[in-house]
Amino acid sequence: MIVDTDQARPARQSGTIRPVTHEDVPALKTVIDANGLFPSDMLDDMLAGYFSGDASDDFWLTSDDGGPVAVAYYAPERMTQGTWNLLLIAVDPDRQGQGRGSALLCHVEQALAARGERVLLVETSGLPSFARTRAFYQKCGYEEEARIREYYQAGEDKVVFRKLLTVSISENY
Amino acid sequence: MIVDTDQARPARQSGTIRPVTHEDVPALKTVIDANGLFPSDMLDDMLAGYFSGDASDDFWLTSDDGGPVAVAYYAPERMTQGTWNLLLIAVDPDRQGQGRGSALLCHVEQALAARGERVLLVETSGLPSFARTRAFYQKCGYEEEARIREYYQAGEDKVVFRKLLTVSISENY
Description:
The first copy, chain A, has 173 residues and is an alpha+beta fold.
């Protein structure tokens, strides 16, 4: 999933990270639209399995600071033991530069590590316009692991970032 | 998907390549079991969307020679324009070495190219025990495009093979 994220060094930011609820959906659509990621009405289908419990290994988290201001969605890779994929992470543009993206990503990593998962992958575009996104993942300790040429469309590669998960002492975000 | 395939140079082999039907399922389970790929009762779930029409972009083909003796399953990669993934290809061990795997794979490539698709990916294990499978894809013109370390489990990489699709003159298999 192609995403945009905040780039600044983590500053002290308030709010809590918690699972997404039905009530969050309109605000999360606004976050999706503001980032221009994909048509936000796709969110209903993407969340359907999570809300129904049919996709019980789909995890959706939000950063709530007077309302949902960021979203992360991650799920296991099929046919693997302990490998996960961060399918979406996005922060409200008005709340970027406050470390919310980094905090949300660290939260995901620690939640996965705590349950014994091994690897988190993130996939994004190789286009120049996604340089900030790729820099964000690198800043968060992700290595460029692979590149599939011409993946998304002619001329647009997919870049796969990867991080080995380890349990660390909880940080104060 | 991890697969096993025949390795011999394509020999003249009889039979037809056609879409999978409900009646093929027991024979295809036998092919899956004989190759030790995954529990063959998973096939029912894998085929459910294809048979119901809900997954109308899932394609399942069999090589029929007095009954189904091989199977191929391919589907589009989400969020791409023209990139597909060969999720399964397997040949009855008693019918391997007759060029059936190569013929089935060529058929898939030509069917995709004919509808204007661009890229076919195949993913398999990096373990030494899958050397024959990787050699099969290389023989069929696939390049090793990427490797995700420790993907399937600790110590087992995923290798991604890739081929750019082009329409070619039909061959007699």
